[in-house]
Amino acid sequence: MAAADGSSCRRLTDGRFECHSLTWSPDGSRIAYITDRREDSDRLTVSDSICVVGIDGSEPVELPSPPGSKSELTWSPNDKLLAFTGNTDPEDNWGTRNTRVIIIPSTGSTEWLDLTGRFDLEVGYHTLGDCHMTGGGQVLQWLQEGESILFPVSIFGSVRLFSCTTDGEGEPLPISDPHSELGGYHAAPGGSLVAYTHGNDVTPLELYSMRLPLTDSPQQISNMNRDFLAEVCPIKPEAVEIGRNGGAVHGWILRPANFTFNGSWPLVLYVHGGPHTQYGHTFFHELQFLAASGFVVLYTNPRGSKGYGEAHTRAIHRAWGTVDWEDIQLAADYGASLPGVDASRMAIMGGSYGGYMTAWAVGHTQRFACAIADRLVAANVSMAGTTDFAWRHGLNFDGNSWDNTQPLQACSPLSFAAAVTTPLLLIHSDGDLRCPIGQAEEMFAALRHMGKTVEFVRYPAETSHGMSRNGPPDLRIDRLQRNVDWLNRWLQKQ
Fold this sequence. Notes:
The chain is an alpha+beta fold. It folds into 2 domains: about 20-200 and about 200-220, 6 Propeller (Neuraminidase); about 235-490, Alpha/Beta hydrolase fold, catalytic domain (Rossmann fold, 3-Layer(aba) Sandwich). The protein contains 10 helices and 25 strands. The strands form 5 sheets. An 8-stranded mixed β-sheet has the order 18-19-21-20-22-23-24-25, with helices on both faces. A hairpin with a 4-residue loop joins strand 10 (about 140-145) and strand 11 (about 150-155). The longest helix has 19 residues, at about 475-490. The termini are far apart.
């Protein structure tokens, strides 16, 4: 802890343990934080603890709290409660469960309240885009001296601001608009005025304000994208629901501005990363660029995605390449059936898990004329020991990478490389720590050895897993143009 003028600095905790989500008590005498002080916590199930330490140098005290992951800790203004997001499943280290809002007494108790779990809501910012970072906004903020709380919910492609009373009796209520994206928010002291960023699929995020309770329309404060929107004409996507047994695959279609239903247009099926994220009502520059380049773009939220209930997300737990692949095939069937689409000129592409699913697809079908796998996962055996997070063998995938590799190989695209006949472009960054460069190297080496049609674009170390979203502008432009060049090369009319 340091004084505001920098005159003194004092250490409040000891040990080789991470402390995060620090929150001050209302009187400024204590700090609560989240930690995991277990030895070898990186190889064990998830069990975060909540501790409180006084600024007087007293020893930290661990508060009783439910098991499982925890983040976004915040102390109520009336000093009575602590709220955090997480879930109570210690084996869920990949976010297959819904993230919930949970509150406990600030003095510690085995009694705790899950405010959102019974409503099957996913708390947080999970809509993917490339015009801002996903998940960077404030998550929890108290209202009315701790009687209610604000939080974002990712639901059916939208991110909306919700409120809920903290007595455990009330139902979470949406505040912001449907079919839109909340990018972040902050409530003024007292909670009557909220500033937030808001956008949709044709308008990038802008700053707005609203008063609670919401009786008047929100007021737009900024207009930073005015010149950009005067220069370009974003295309409004069409929402679709593709029926399947027991449910539907939700998605969107972007058609070129000059699209004609009696034409013969190429189609790109774009698969999102995560896999536990969602596509939705956000301005997505790359998708708009593809449509402006003459491609019909179909993007969906197959099983494994967030925003459609926990069962939808958890359907691919220990089962990548199963029901998610079924939903991707349904989307491909749907795209091929669309009026004006040439089914012989379809491509599939995606990044991260979307790159995984692209490589999986071309190893299981020959229906696509070409494919682009960006920052892919190709081989789970090597991925398990080289990625930048603790894999925790046996939790999200069966088997391990040393003496029980078959389950990991069975759900790895590399295992099906011999069946690939589709021209495949691999894009990867040397600086990618999440899906290390070796994933692309292994896939490329195997396909090249067998004489398959494959190209490998390798970006330098100053780029990362998020290069398409936050990489150097010149390299982002280079990547977009290479993608379009590859699509044009293989989707031209014969």
